[in-house]
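Worked example 3. Consider a protein that binds cobalamin.
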Amino acid sequence: MSFRLLLVAPPVLHGVGWWSNRDAGKPHLESLAAHVRRLCGADVVELDRVDEPDLPGALAHLDTQLTDDVGLVGISCWTSLHYLGTVAVIKHLRATHPTLPIVVGGHHATALPSDFEGLADWVVVGDGEHALRSLCAAPPKRPDETVLLKGAPITLSDDDPMDWTQVGVGEQTVWLTLSRGCPFRCRFCLEPLRGAASSRYSVAHALHIVETVVRSQAPSSVAFADPLFGSNRRWTEQFLAGLEELALPVQFWAETRADLVTAELLALYRRCGFKLDFGLDTGSLVMAEVMEKAAHPERYLRRSAEMLRAADAEALPHGVYLLFNYPGETPETTRATMDWIRTLMPPGGASSGWLSAQSFFHLPGTESFRRMPEYAERFGSRVHHPRWWTLTGDHHRLATATLPHRDWEGQEDAMWGHVRWQRGVNARWSARWTPEVRSFLQTFYGQRG
Ligand code: B12
Ligand code: SF4
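Given these inputs, the predicted complex is written out as structure tokens:
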């Protein structure tokens, strides 16, 4: 093997609360490494969780990995929170190893490749597997200027190059991606604009992957990093039926939509040992339409309410995710969502849910990012820090500093009323958890620290 590729997860420099859960795995880097291993050596370096959280500590750790055989460094600007860490790593490498070629990829790089102009040698837009393979075919040389590489979408097939006995080694939670792509077009999400192809492993291969990972690594949980788990009903039913038969001694986690499930599926998810998170986002008909949550917002909310009640009746541990303050949100739509949530829990019923209410953040690569000028005109929306990822400071505070609608002017503090409201809802919901649900969630969160 002529050279080695280092795939670097850069430090997250201003994530504060946003990045508090450092339990995110690296299925993206594991997939990239597996796809080039026949051409060169490939290793993953995680600077987002080195012992020293400070930048000098992270760079010192990187230096220990930079042996003479390293011929290419790939940096994953996976989210916009990674931007300043990516720039810091590039500058460090340029100062210490000026001839070493650098390629950058990831969701932020895909959304704004121009952010790396004059910094990286190559910027990969989209899925990185094919583009990286072409770069690694021979030891790469630095080009004169930054070159944009359009990554061809990856299609998952059962003939995959992954060594599943090696993914997430030593992790309590192993992250697995069994499908790519999503058929929906929610405007706050980056998936619809990045042009990923829709593909998935066959049910038999997916079950083989999960079984191999669990038997070889004995994790306490398996989390699915699919953009939208359960987007294909038939596949999901067959996969869960197979998983139930395997009776593996782990807990599972996935993110899906309430309008995609059925009461039978919810029961199957529970019997398999899942905690399921539902990206509901809003209970307001107006906002469901603005966010483009579904082609028929009324049907979306009706179906979601039925299924969230069914999840409680089934005692399936689950999370309900809301996104307040998306452009167009008014005090009325906020109240509509809160009223809608109240209808989920009739007096005296049992619960197995937990509510997570977030405030909209401005993310490059999304339809909402593209539409800001339109929202400004239509709703009077404003984004106070349009390039927050380039600023130093609390990134969560900077990215969420927006005015969703002119109706909030003069009462901006009230926009954050959902934080206190959420606490009250969770106190009521958790008081109604059964002992089984409580014990499941204690184990689930206990593992994550
Ligand atoms: C699953 C997931 C998570 C999981 C973690 C998954 C994991 N890796 O462990 C959880 C739920 C923890 C999570 C959290 C967050 N997430 Co998230 N997440 C996703 C999701 C749905 C799938 C990611 C995934 O694993 N895909 C499959 C893997 C195999 O590939 P991939 O990530 O797509 O990477 C490919 C390319 O980006 C490229 N690539 C990546 N790195 C590199 C490097 C090089 C050198 C090259 C050449 C190419 C390349 O090639 C890869 C392989 O094809 C994406 C949306 C999506 N559709 O992708 C959002 C997404 C990445 N998340 C996002 C965000 C913002 C977050 C949070 C900050 C959100 C929050 N509310 O707190 C947190 C971060 C906190 C944390 N501690 O991680 C945004 C990023 C957008 C942006 N501009 O920043 C996305 C795009 C969702 C969105 N809103 O649109 N997330
Ligand atoms: S938020 Fe979920 S359902 Fe909506 S487009 Fe993104 S991945 Fe698909």
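Take a moment to read the result before moving on. The first strand starts at residue 4 and ends at 9. The longest helix spans residues 297-313.
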